[in-house]
Amino acid sequence: MSEAAEAGEPLAGFAVGITASRRAEEFATLLLRRGATVMHAPAIRIIPLADDAELERVTGAIIETPPEITVATTGIGFRGWMEAAEGWGQAECLGRALASSRLLARGPKAKGAIRAADLREEWSPASESSAEVLEHLLAEGVEGKRIAVQLHGATTEWEPVPDFCEVLRHAGAEVVPVPVYRWTAPDDGAPMDRMIEAVIVGDLDAISFTSAPAVASLLMRADENGVLEPLLQSLRSRVLPVCVGPVTAAPLEQLKVSTTQPARARLGALARHIAEELPRRAKPMRAGGHSISVRGKCVVVDGVVRPVSPAGMALIKTLAARPGRVVSRDDLLASLPGGGDDTHAVETAMTRLRSSLGAPKTIQTVVKRGYRLALDPTDEDVDCDSDAPTSTQSGHTARSSEGSKY
């Protein structure tokens, strides 16, 4: 166990991206307390409910003809709806309309928002799942019934269109979608551009999402910048996408990006999940008699976090991508920030990297060829790569397979 882990900082040395626009400071604090370095770039901007003409129109229609059933899907959405109605002078009328409706709450937050409005829900699933709400409605029969469904956000080609309303319509219900808020991209896209670049180059160990719109917005921005494929490739290989729940994860999963999620869709659970998953997935290597683990912006050597310059991180990541194999000076030069045309820059950066690691023997110079991580031999090592130095060249055998961060 590392010194940081023993000190109660399981995320020491890990860099985590936060895309949340709400409660981002609270979430960042939870990660910082666990030792993480945090990068924040809000991926969406919420349009104020009181300014949403479509919500005002739908609210008027519900007041005029109350639905038989109303489904509240999120606490923030339901509260915002009531607050917007207050701003329009329609709160009492909306309250009476909903009181005459059978209220279903998807989870405890929606239930709490209903009760805060002096209303009472008829039923709420233990699973907090929209699918269970849908099953409940279909089981009792919805043909001919007028059902209001509180939506959240907007839909795009990156954000799967919810089939909840469509299934109800297909079953014969008259569905009234209630768009409680809308989202758009942030006014300033620069922070999100930096976040996307950090994912692509591997400066982050994980990136977190707390809503499907945030995922959609990030994907759209990357597509606009012409870097969608590099972003997806990095998310599939070296940067761990962590989502608060399955709805949030859906846009990434549809693009064959595997995600991980906590058992409960809560901010605290998300922070704990990240603190468990990143150390578990980090696989230290033995090189030069030391345990080394390459993180987004640092290297952990024998359990001690070693800060490394951007140039040094570029070198160690390139070497770690091909553990035990020789990497040419030209390839290492190409990996340096800004590139260059003189391999002397590689030698200078390598000297500084070895000094930062405090374990210079972890990286071996292979005369006239380049550099390699001097992996310690194991019982499983097999020298089957022509680029891998033999025992007579280095005193070590090399691993036969390429490694990755996760």
Structure, described:
The protein has 406 residues and is α/β, with parallel strands linked by helices. The protein contains 17 helices and 16 strands. It has helices at residues 3-6, 24-33, 53-64, 75-87, 91-99, 108-116, 130-140, 164-170, 190-201, 212-224, 228-237, 246-254, 267-281, 310-320, 329-335, 344-357, 391-394; strands at 15-18, 37-40, 45-47, 69-72, 102-105, 146-151, 174-179, 182-184, 206-209, 240-243, 285-287, 290-294, 298-301, 304-307, 363-366, 370-373. A 4-stranded parallel β-sheet has the order 2-1-9-10, sandwiched between helices. Strands 5-4-6-7 form a 4-stranded parallel β-sheet, with helices on both faces. The protein has a 4-stranded antiparallel β-sheet with strand order 11-12-13-14, with helices on one face. β1 (15-18), α2 (24-33) and β2 (37-40) form a beta-alpha-beta unit. α14 packs across α15.
List the SSEs and their pairings:
Blueprint: H1 3-6, E1 15-18, H2 24-33, E2 37-40, E3 45-47, H3 53-64, E4 69-72, H4 75-87, H5 91-99, E5 102-105, H6 108-116, H7 130-140, E6 146-151, H8 164-170, E7 174-179, E8 182-184, H9 190-201, E9 206-209, H10 212-224, H11 228-237, E10 240-243, H12 246-254, H13 267-281, E11 285-287, E12 290-294, E13 298-301, E14 304-307, H14 310-320, H15 329-335, H16 344-357, E15 363-366, E16 370-373, H17 391-394
Parallel strand pairs: 1-2, 1-9, 4-5, 4-6, 6-7, 9-10
Antiparallel strand pairs: 3-8, 11-12, 12-13, 13-14, 15-16
Helix pairs in contact: 3-5, 4-5, 4-6, 9-11, 10-12, 14-15, 14-16
